[in-house]
Amino acid sequence: MAVLTVIAFHAGAIGGGFIGVDVFFVISGFLITRLLWTELAGTGRINLTRFYAARARRLLPAAATVLVATAAATVALLPPLQARSALDDGLASALYVGNYRFALTGTDYLSHNAPSPFQHYWSLGVEEQFYLLWPMLLLAAGLLWGRSRRRRQPSTVPYLVLLVAVGAASLALSVSWTQTWPSWAFFSLPTRAWELAAGGLVAVSAPLWRRLPAGFAAIAGFSGLGVIGWAATHIDDRTPYPGTAAILPVLGTALVIVAGCATPTRGAGRWLSLPPMRAIGRLSYSWYLWHWPLLLFAPIVAGHPLGWPGRLTAVAASFLLAVLTLRYVERPIRYARPLRRSAGLSLVLGSAVTAAAVSAALILPMVVPVPAGRSQPAAAAVVHSAARPNLAPVDPLASALAAARTAVDASARHAPLPADLSPALGAAPGDKPEVFLDGCVRSWLEVGVPDCVSGDPSAPTTVALVGDSHAAMWQPALEPVARRNHWRLVTMAKVTCPLQDIPITSPYLGRTYSECEQWREQALSRLASERPRLVILSMSRRYGADFGFTSYDPAWIASLTDLIADLRAATGGRVLVLGPVPDPRANVPVCLSAHPDDILACSPDRTPGLNTAGITAESRATGDGGGQYADLSALFCAAGVCPVVVGNDLVFRDDNHLTVSYSRTLAPVLGMIAEQAIAPRS
Question: Do 313 and 298 contact (CB within 8 A), yes or no?
């Protein structure tokens, strides 16, 4: 049942099928604790070598087989840059620490990673870490209790105390981190241990449950199945998880196991013992390993998103691969007599297959080098024009915009990557302004406005660059301008947090984005005290309904007018709103690594890359608030397309943020826009 819910979730059939993993954890906690407790009660000890050997035979060969196959498919099917990142996931998964890598990348707003073909290995990481630590904790509890009580016969008391203590601490941590560090709450052992402990509690207290009347057991069993089913269909990816929501599938699974202790062949146990369900149970491990990479790779092979027939075909193919893996890998190794007789040989085998998986993840990146430029070096884009003393004076900003438009138009053509691409594709993800690395750009959970000053720090004229990460990406362009003009440039930014006063939720945190609301107040207070001559406001225009509003919607436009008016009143200065950059609608370096011979293959059309109607509405709203609006379309887009390489500059480092290189290239024109905005008016 657990594997069916997970597969149904990944296939798009039910919204809460990921709760199947919680079911796995409770069952695993029950089975492993029962196994260890039985040995401990019978012999007074646990043979750790034999225990680890049995786990190695049972789990590692199939996991390594699927991982190596997935790694090969990753190299064959994914763009080189994405493949190399995915193989890093594979390496972590082969070492059974993938859950912590996914926790780290899941909390990195700027990573913008596509789904990993190895992401489902996170639960195996939790399981393996549990298998490593749990026997030692049980032994320690037994030893401490035995020494203090001088008992010869084992008592359930120390183990029940241990299970309750671990479960309570883990549940409290899970609830807390679900609100503050949701990715760590989801992927880490400390926040999942309570689910395993719940299964352990049922295992240690099994004699009690065996005395349940058959009627009560039947009610408990079917109630548990009902709770699991309800959770799978009513919890979804908008639910803060695991947190308190995970109590439902854990409780439901515990009830089913309790019922099985009393009446294993009656009630829910009879239904779960039907031949089809038992067959699925035998296949569940291999089926779980195969289903996700096939669902992920199938659309790539097909060349289009999958409908229901395609997804069912992928699920069926993963089922067949699971059958083959069970027959030719799992069973032969698990039940091989030489391995069963020798724990040492089993451990050697486990080490060998793990080494094979690690080697695949280490060696295969050599097969997919990141493409370098294949054409001659390109001239750097020039976005300013030289002085023309013999000609009549012209508007320098208009001249700069014309030069930028010329550079963009010249790049709007089918051409390979230039040999001197800046930054190189492999370096692009790390091409972040310093303000993203030194704490100036506040992360999801951070509040406060640090003293982030550049340009001329001692200058009397202050210019403030304020907004979300799209404001911070302009700092490399404005910093040299601030130095030249002797401005004190203050940067205030927080990820996914526009400065407008709009109620906001965070899809990353799964709750009201209270940290954003707090930061807004702090930033506005800081601006009121700083009283900058010019506030430069910039923000992403990719906010969708999951934030509680949509970029360019009526609330967005109205709040922009109000914000500008409030800033002018609070600071006494001027407000400049920077228009949007185009939306590439894909991770640009990844896309170019798959299309190094044609930059236009990754370049969005001007429509829908830029929302012309939205820009017009923002410009009008800015004027209504008393501010100035800078339409930056000419810096990025030709008549029909927005090239992602201009001159030798890579424009985007991910799917929406500018590279430092292109930001600096635009410094002359950004400087003129800012200079005109701050200049005294006649």
Answer: yes
